[in-house]
Structure formats: structure tokens, C-alpha cells
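Sample entry copied in:
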Amino acid sequence: MKTALILSGGGARGIAHVGVAQALWERGVRPDVISATSSGAFVGALLAYGYEPADILNMIRDTSFYPYLRFGIGTSGLLHLRKMEDVFCKFIPENTFEALKTPLIVTATDIISGEEVRFRTGELALPVLASCCIPGLFSPMRHEGHDLVDGGVLNNLPVEPVLGEADYIIGSHCNPFNLDKPLKRTTEVIYRSLILAMHIKTKARIAKCDLLIEPPALSRYSIFDFRKADQLFEAGYKFTKALLNDRPDLLP
């Protein structure tokens, strides 16, 4: 049986995917293919390269991402993600999809054509980082003739790339539709609006998952809560572990 792991976007909440993976790995469940977008693509690339979840958590803890976010006032976004290439290539120096141990499909959005763009071969860092470009906050990234932004704009749970390729689909969705904390920043309101606009389509994609992992505790966290990495990891880990303990029949 071929298993696929789908990782949604969600900013800092994407760190919860690492905890989800830890719980799955402990039960002997490892995907044969990963399909991911936005922050899920960043986590997915590290998992696909072969890093253990605990190692990824340590990397996130030890990396201060803010110095690499260069301001781009006057451009189509407030920040550039290009400098993050340096960080990414420290983790995956080969910088190619072909260097990954597990096949990975990254979904981004072409902001000009309004179409999804999928990547699974060639250069790795730029597609992953482009998939993280929240419109209005980050400038679009030019790659292979596309002006790319966050894949979550059109598809925040990219199940479609693995349909017909996997027998069992596990979806890790870290964008709860109900929030327990106020939105304090304009950028949070923008991102929240995108998520709500995608709500119906995301629900349809959730229905295609054989196992959905959606930790309700994530409703307490912002997309900018990178300094709460341990708590986000625990939210994903504890929920998934409890779910699999209660429902072992859900395992592939």
C-alpha cells in the first residue's frame, strides 16, 4: 500500500506538522510521497530529505528566521524571502528534488495566470520558498517563467497531486477554521481572509483524505508564533498520538 502525506500551509502553525510526523513515525507510518504547500512545503522538504522530526524541531529552534527576511518597500510585498535560500541550502545543500529520499510535490500559485503550479523535479529551494510567499507580505518570486506566491491561495491542502498515485492519504491540516485568539496584525487578517475564502474547497479536499489530522489546539496560535515552536510541535504530536491510540483502525 502506497501512503501519501499532505501538509497544509499555516505560517508558524506549520511547525505542528513536525509533531504530527513524530507521532506517525513512532507508529511505523512513513509516507511514500509527500504533497505540500507554503510552510508545509518547508517542513515537507526536510522530512523528504530524511531528517527525523526531532532534528527538524531543533533546526527551527536554532534558526532565527527574521534576519533573513529583507524589507522590500516599494515592491509588491513588504519583505523578500530570497535570503532564506541561504538557510534552506544549509539544510539541503544539494538543493534539488532529486536529492530527496521521499518524492515531494510542492504547490505554488502563479499570481499572473491565476493557476496552480506544481514542482517535483529540479531546483528545490526557490519553489519551496515561493510557495511560502503570503501575498501582501512577501514579494512574489520569479521562477521558471512564473510569478509565484503562496500555494495556499488556490489550494491549501494539495491532495490532487497524489490522487491515483497513493492508496492511503493522510492530511495534516494546521489552519483551523475557528480561532480562539484575536487577529492583531493586518497581515494576519489578510491570511485569515485567504483561509476563509478557501474554506469550501478545503473541506472538499479534506473529504478525500483517509485520515485527517487537525489539532484543535492550533486555534490558539498565530501564523507568526515561530518562537512557540515547542508548543506547536507538542500540539501536533499529542493530538496525533492520542488519535492513533484511540483509533488504531485508522492506520494504513
The radius of gyration is 17 Å. The chain is about 35% helix and 15% strand.
